[in-house]
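Morning - tryptophan inputs below, output right after.
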Amino acid sequence: MKKILSGIQPSGILTLGNYLGALKNWVEIQNDYECTYFVADLHSITVTQDPKTLHENIKKVIMQYIACGIDPEKNTIFIQSHVHEHAELGWILNNSAYMGELQRMTQFKDKTAKQENDSVKVGLFDYPVLMAADILLYDPDYVPVGEDQRQHLEITRTLGRRFNSTYGEIFKIPDAYISKSGARIMSLQDPSKKMSKSDANPNGFISLLDSKDEIIKKFKRAVTDSENVVKYTENQPGIKNLIDIYACVTDKKIEQIEAEFEGAGYGTFKTAVGEAVADRLEQIQKKYNELNKPENEEFIQSIYTKGAEKAGKYAKPKLEQVYTALGFVL
Ligand code: TRP
């Protein structure tokens, strides 16, 4: 079976964007690939996190993975920092990466645009190298990543090739996994930005754990335009995003949706989208609330412990192979 690997940062409760853009698809492919999904805790501290909140969020991401339908029997689920080899390989790859290429990463440039150099963290700068280590450590065939992470996957491929050409064929060079059904969900407040769990404005995103009332309220407040026609066009990015969301949660076609809301106002459409999303999330929340009970804590713990053991079985010899190639004494 071909191998897939991906991770999500525990920088908050997962959003509808994480679900429709990633998790929903991960569930659909779990019988066709050998999949590994981790919680990228090491990556999350590139932005200062409140330790108590981070601690909870890490466990919550594990529970949200499972609540969304990722079967822990079929997939390997673990916490990044539990497998020390990630950080270790990250250090090694720092010696393959160049300052210039990291400085050119669009995400780094965007995130630091308004900061003085003196307050930009080295971790943020180095983030793509750790991500390359996460990936190269496991020789996956494919990495499902969103548009915003494409460049990081590209640098992963570059670093893998560069290492291989100096030290021998050690790493498999992975491809991006292009999902058939995934969608890029944008902020409800600014449809030019990706929906993000770290958005300062909670109206911009739907959290997987929002109540039905909150969900409907947020959709009612979604930024649209004054065209007042439900049409899928680049000129109406807000409405286009809502159509994408509605299409994803109802499995309806775009044309079908345009026809369904022909002549209807935005109010009606927004409420319909809110209802459909709330219905979909209700099932996830039910499962999540069950998993979140104290009596299930051990079960959750056993999943990420077993996951780290399994991941470590691949990562440890891989890192040893790297150390040997470098000339280190094992
Ligand atoms: N950088 C990714 C994000 O923010 C998370 C991530 C970390 C990741 N390591 C990874 C994704 C390895 C895929 C593979 O979305």
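Note: The two ends are 31 Å apart (CA to CA).

O.
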